[in-house]
Amino acid sequence: MSRRLTWTLLALTSVLLVLAVVPLAVLMTARERVAFRDDQRAATRVIAAAAEEHLSDRKPATGMRQELDAAARAGDCAAVYDASARLVASTPCTAAQGEDSQEVVADVLAGHEPEPPESEGRLLTAEPAGEVRQPAGAVVLARSAAPLDGRVAAIWGWSAAIAAAGLVASVLLSVRLARWVSRPLSALDASARKLGEGTLDERADVGGGPPEVRRLAATFNTMAARTEALVHGHRAVLADVSHQLRTPLAALRLRLDVLSTGAEGDTAAELDAAQEEIARLSRLVDGLLAVARAEQATPRPAAVRVDDVVTERVAAWSPVAEERGVRLTASEGPALTASLGSGHLEQILDNLIANALDAVPDEGNVTVDCRLVGDAARVCVRDDGPGMPAEAKAVAFRRFGNPAARGTGLGLAIVHRLVTVNGGGARLEDTPGGGLTVVLDLPLWAGEP
Hints:
- By secondary structure, this protein is of the alpha+beta class.
- It has helices spanning 2-55, 62-73, 99-109, 146-196, 211-260, 265-295, 306-324, 344-359, 390-394, 411-421, and strands at 77-82, 87-90, 118-119, 122-130, 135-144, 302-305, 327-330, 337-340, 365-373, 376-383, 425-430, 436-443.
- The chain folds into 3 domains: 2-150, Beta-Lactamase, CATH 3.30.450; 211-294, Orthogonal Bundle (Helix Hairpins); 299-443, Histidine kinase-like ATPase, C-terminal domain (Heat Shock Protein 90, 2-Layer Sandwich).
- The strands form 3 sheets. Strands 2-1-5-4-3 form a 5-stranded antiparallel beta sheet, with helices on both faces.
- The longest helix has 54 residues, at 2-55.
């Protein structure tokens, strides 16, 4: 943002400088040329007035010679012609006596007003000596264009210097303005990122930047404070519920154990059924608490070796699989590092493997593998059990979405929440040949190819 703002301001300033400086320089150049030409014509008229007294009134040529000498001292070349275009007098230099001068003299003697050309770095002007329609002669004055070129170059040089100074000032102002605007936004972005990663006490600085940015930072701090209060409140509720539910359930189980001691017949059967219901209720409470914790989880991403965790969890569940007569294996895969919250992948795999072991019959197979797919680490848990109909797969990631589930119906909900909160995705597919496959796409750790 800082660079875009700086370049935008620089482009706008450059356009404004060009639109302001260039026309001004062109106008000043045109005025210098007009002033130079008018001054040259005035000098030519002075000589023409003195030449008229000599050519028309037959006065001595003293005044005309004096004006020609003054023109020569000023660095000009001048020549006086009579009515027949014959040279009468001139300065020592001959720049006013060339072919261009002859053409200009002819036009003047014909009563026309010529447009004198520029010859060899000199500007020519011609004026009639006497009346314009019937002149007694003509005067041609050639003046070097070097002073005019110097003044024009100075105008454009000063214009370029002013434009460069304005551009430098614009650069400094643009950089300062861009930093003034972008730094508070960058700090606010960093605070929002930390808050999203789980640092609930993170607050933004409200002391810098434009008023709108300061108001945005204050609003962010209010939101962060409310979020922190809500999360802490939910955690307190979970802790209270966990304590208030587990304690009476444990006491009830102990009492049932005491009552079942020495019980016989129907009484023993009823007590066993009650203990099973208590155990089921305990598992349900644990599952609901696990879902609640997963839903309010704000993980701090860490580098997790997916292949190592897969191997470890398969080894941990292998005794359970052997006890149930199920073959649990892990396919060899590449070394992949995912960006996940601490302990999340273990919890995800535990739920998926437990569900798969409950679903497959004896002599069934459960396979866990991982591989690189695009920019994600893909983990698949396959089983060759009865599978799941399309209607059940559509709602399987919801709480109690599958009423036919053997367990609490919360395992896939926990899995989905833990995967999505880490920026990944989860879906269900049919295993070729029958069964269910859970596909997880986990984000790669920064720097993983």
